Structures are given as structure tokens and as C-alpha cells.
Amino acid sequence: MKKISFLIGSFFLLFSAKAQQAYFGVKGGVNISDLHYNDNSTTDSKPGLDFGVLAHLHASKTLAIQPELIYSLEGASSKLIPEGIVNTSLNYLNFPVLLQYMFNNGLRLEGGPQIGFLLNAKTKSGNVTVNNAGFQSTAVSIPLGVGYLASSGFGLDARYVFGLSNINDVKNGPTIQSNVFQLGIFYQLSDLKMHSH
User: Fold this and answer.
1) pTM score > 0.90 for this model?
2) What are the backbone angles phi and psi of residue 16, rounded to the nearest 5°?
3) How far apart are CA 128 and CA 84, in angstroms?
4) CB-side exposure of 20: number of CA atoms within 13 Å?
5) Torsion 56-24-149-45 (CA) sign
6) Whole-angstrom distance, CA of residue 169 vs CA of residue 118
7) Which of 78, 114, 149, 188 is the residue whose CA sits 20 to 30 A from 28?
8) What is the pLDDT of residues 69-88, one digit of tens each?
């Protein structure tokens, strides 16, 4: 995890050195998350919210990097035997660093690495709730998506976050990966389309 954090940080610093200017913004949206188990356990998706801040840095007319700091409510409802239905709630502070390809019409394609820091975890089965047990403190994933920035500074984005790391901290337990679909709105403090020409 330290190597991944170092690589993300180094990439961000190198890109920042070439960036023309940084623009800041805020964002928020809805999550549809699920947990993938490698032992064929089935899960139902769980709705949640996410919100945070972003910085948008241009390196050229078509390329930018966008680091974000996002509070994200994730998890799933799992059908386990013999426990029955187990509801899992995972709250993360996520740090995605997205490389964006920008079109002149405001459309953006984006993707990059993300590291998430687990702030709180709860599992509930029936009337029994267990706090902060059984999950790794960090999660590595890859968000891929598309966005659109209007001339007003408001925008929309949609992305799917593919979980890469095993977030299960139970010894000899199944591999668990968190996957999240996110749909959000954002406000950027400058109309970047004007600066891309």
C-alpha cells in the first residue's frame, strides 16, 4: 500500500509541475455498491451517498489530472449460510487520481487509480450488529467513467469503480472486492472549456 501511495503521489507531483493552472470544485452523488465474494456468495446492491472536493489541473488542451477527496458510503446486503441476510455498511475516505481526456464540447473520459481508507465498518445480521470487524483498513480500486462540464461550471459524471484488492481481513476467509457505480453532479469554479482552446 505504501508503494501505491508513493506512486500516486509522485504521479500527481510530476503532473502538477507541468499543469497550467489548478481549478477547484465540489461534488456529490449517489452510489450503488456491491461486494463480490470468490466463494459464490450472492450479494444485493446497496444505495449510498458520496461527497467531497476536487482539483482539476490542465497539462494540455486535451489532457488533465483530477485528484479528489471523497467521503463514500458503500457496502452490500449478503445472503450467507447459516447467518441469513447480512447487511454490510462500509464508510470510506477515497482518494482517486483521474487522468482525463477532454473534448471541446465539454465531454470528458476519465480513469485512474484510487486508494480508500476505511473509516467505519458495520455488519448487521438480525438484531446483532458488529462494529469495525473483519475488513482491511485500505482498499485499492480503479474508477473508469465519463463526465460533462457545462459553461456554467456545473457538470455531471458517471463512473464505475472496480475493486482490485481483497478487503476481507478475516484469516482464511473468502476474497471480497468492493465495486461501486457512482452518478454525481459537481461544480467547478471555472469554465475550463474556455481555457482549452
Assistant:
1) no
2) -60, -35
3) 12
4) 10
5) positive
6) 12
7) 78
8) 999 999 998 776 666 778 89
